[in-house]
Amino acid sequence: xxxxxxxxxxxxxxxxxxxxxxxxxxxxxxxxxxxxxxxxxxxxxxxxxxxxxxxxxxxxxxxxxxxxxxxxxxxxxxxxxxxxxxxxxxxxxxxxxxxxxxxxxxxxxxxxxxxxxxxxxxxxxxxxxxxxxxxxxxxxxxxxxxx
Length: 147
Prior knowledge:
Blueprint: H1 25-43, H2 49-64, H3 79-88, H4 92-110, H5 115-136
């Protein structure tokens, strides 16, 4: 069983609620139970990861009610591009482009006539994939005057 911080402890005096949370402890536990139910449905393969993220974002928006979702709902039909974009911080379009290039290279390598050709096509595709991902990643900012 999934155990969320504060779920059981709060009933014994230790809560996972944020100090600045204006909700009652019962409201907090109901919110956490809703999230636990969503996660349970996902673990039981009743809903996809995309649906899970969307439902949790909606639950957070309902609970916090300030109009600022804590998680963004899915943005495209390609779940892998969404995950890559979220994990690396690159734009969704760059993630989709990188994955399309990688998938194309895999397909072409699978249909190559020789093992050497397949390896060369695959390696070129992986280099392109890595270059696109790298180029889309946010660049670190240096403190003012450190150049």
